[in-house]
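Quick check before the chapter quiz. The format below is the same one you will see on the exam, so make sure you can read both the input and the output lines.
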Amino acid sequence: MYLSIDQSTSSSTIFLYNKKFKLISKYSKPHKQIQKSYGYVEHDANEIISNIFFLVRKISKKIKFEKDLFLSITNQRETFVIFDKNSGKPLHNAIVWQCRRGQKVCDKINKSIKNKKLIKKKTGLTLDTYFPASKLRELLNSNKKIKDKLKNGTALFGTIDTYLIYRLTNQKIYCTDFTNASRTLFFDNSSLCWSKDLLKLFNLNLQNLPDVRESSSIFGYTNFNGLLKKNIPISGVIGDSQASIFANHCFNKGNTKITLGTGASILTNIGQSFEYNNNIITTLSYVYKNKPSYSYECLINYAGATLGWLKNNLKIIRNENQINKIFTKTKNTEGVVFVPAFVGLSSPYWKPNSKALIHGLTPAINKNQIIRAALESIAFQIKDYLVDLEVKNKIKYNEIYIDGGIVSNTSFMQFLTNILNKKIYVTNYQDMSSYGALMMGLLGMNIKKNFKEIKKLKQKYFIYAPSKDIEANQSYENWKFVLKKFYL
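Here is the expected output.
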């Protein structure tokens, strides 16, 4: 048996797989989204670790302590925690990837072309408050106590994986994997080490930084504070989007993975050479046996989160099934365009100060058109990025694999493939990040010896083929018109 944890933006989920890598059981528990003021998004890290212990307690009766039992972890990227070195307890709420508190820091650094070039050359990423560095700097500007503790080493910085490993190993192991380190904006993704130059640029005086390991390493041992009768290894630690590209076996150049979750992440394999481009994000996909693999990436802040906003803020939908039915029966938006720039627009626009917009409302419009427009906005953002990648940057992408909760909406998936005018492969298994972490763990535990053996475990896919869709194309033209008029 194998355990896997997916600590995502909205919830924590635990999975139990059998020896044939089939899912036996899974349990989830959501955590609160804390928004104290505009642009500030936080999570209670204590609540997150408590939820994980709750889930382990719930699934523990189904666990058989077989020889190769281990735990893998995949997690929401960029979100970070400052925690006490002795107790492991957080000293502040976790600061979430969606949070925009670092914008002033980014604006200041952005004035220097030299600094922007340094960041791009070292990381392949774009200077944006999406990544931790600027938000950490802003936190230290406003909290001298935490600043002093990080400086003297009594407090530690970590992305969610680091925090979880530290707590699960009873404060013994302070480490991260390459994929999570690569998202901080102060890790050199070319030379694969923490960057003194970038730490200096963001004025981050940290006595300690986590040890960085390959995702297929052994990260320590845990019994979940006594919930299990013996310790099991932790192996297979990887950021959620990278876990997904690995699970989808995008091992060849041009292979593209799209995960539709709270946000959406598009990764296109570009091989083992670090290439950076001013208009694109270069991502470290993983490191295996000292060899890195890189991808170009698009980050869409609001995908499923847009639907969550309709549910929780406007309260015009109740659940996912209702969304699917409305999208299917509502043939078009009657000209309504929904631009979900709640925390700005990211790649390929990079308009961080933008605000969201619903355009084209008339007295005849009802909630169904707004809901459909919200879903369509996900497809249009994906289309814009892939067009930019192919036309402006001459990147040929192929074999588009899509996973995430939204793939259950078959009408939307057909709409997406029509808009892209490309064949897409959709797995009926929604938890590909968990599966990717498990695959990494199998390599780390030497249960599987190499990629050739991992390839035999590829999930099955349903193939969507594009068809002519005049209304979809007209809706996309409306989208481009609104973007050009109000944002570009």
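If your answer matched, good. The mean pLDDT is 93.
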